[in-house]
């Protein structure tokens, strides 16, 4: 596994009891790994006058996974990297594992894919889960400083949308290393059933962002009456033809995002939201305010979204007509939860073949 040139990572794994130490360097906005020493607890027992110390390693409630097969490049592959960024959270780790497997399995050049994971807190067991499940995966992990957005987030209609990590995609140009000029951002509740290189190679035509647009959706519903009745705010989209797009699947020109100060533009709308209630959802509406009608449109096949149902009840939904390259369980319902509850939706069975989950048996290892 590779890390930024000036960011060493040291694992002390050969000691007689569980101990983990990582060393890193930081920048003003993020760190790649945080320093931590794994927690251990010591209990004492006394048998026949002989004193023993038993070291128990506390194992977090994090899923276990089967090791994925190794995927190799075909004969026609070059050395060009495909950069994919996703957030990393123990609550969605099962989805992330399935997404990674699906991308590698359907890629003609899987060894060219490099993953850039963002997390808001250091979870060593998550790191080792990835490493053991995908031993040959090219990936880096970056610390997203949650404090950067805590004072900017407004309460939305669903608590999951209010988590700081949900806003990390706004700061990709600040977090990713300089050699990443283009990146595909993906949510953790997706599976890819086509070669991701096809999405990577989309012609941005000078735009900063590419994503599927849905112009049939009622765009006005994403903003409140206060927004549309305000004589200044309601003119935001003048001169544009705004359409809804989902920020769970995006291709970004990282340099252009940085040079165009798009992070600041999104933050400005978040500041307006703190003063006036102009939308109800989380990180999506400020993206729409800045970029709706200004992005490169991608074929709908690359985001068959809404499979998780609505944001309140998560009721089952059917597939939209047409070809499919990416399935996206956006909404409240997640396929792994519905499958575990034995109340799956029909579309959840399309996710199941990529599930690497292996149930935990022990809470403690001695």
UniProtKB/TrEMBL annotation:
<keyword id="KW-0732">Signal</keyword>
<keyword id="KW-0735">Signal-anchor</keyword>
<comment type="pathway">
    <text>Glycan metabolism; pectin biosynthesis.</text>
</comment>
<comment type="similarity">
    <text>Belongs to the glycosyltransferase 8 family.</text>
</comment>
<dbReference type="GO" id="GO:0016757">
    <property type="term" value="F:glycosyltransferase activity"/>
</dbReference>
<keyword id="KW-0808">Transferase</keyword>
<dbReference type="GO" id="GO:0005794">
    <property type="term" value="C:Golgi apparatus"/>
</dbReference>
<dbReference type="InterPro" id="IPR002495">
    <property type="entry name" value="Glyco_trans_8"/>
</dbReference>
<keyword id="KW-0472">Membrane</keyword>
<dbReference type="InterPro" id="IPR050748">
    <property type="entry name" value="Glycosyltrans_8_dom-fam"/>
</dbReference>
<protein>
    <recommendedName>
        <fullName>Hexosyltransferase</fullName>
        <ecNumber>2.4.1.-</ecNumber>
    </recommendedName>
</protein>
<keyword id="KW-1133">Transmembrane helix</keyword>
<keyword id="KW-0325">Glycoprotein</keyword>
<dbReference type="InterPro" id="IPR029044">
    <property type="entry name" value="Nucleotide-diphossugar_trans"/>
</dbReference>
<feature type="signal peptide">
    <location>
        <begin position="1"/>
        <end position="31"/>
    </location>
</feature>
<keyword id="KW-0328">Glycosyltransferase</keyword>
<keyword id="KW-0812">Transmembrane</keyword>
<dbReference type="Pfam" id="PF01501">
    <property type="entry name" value="Glyco_transf_8"/>
</dbReference>
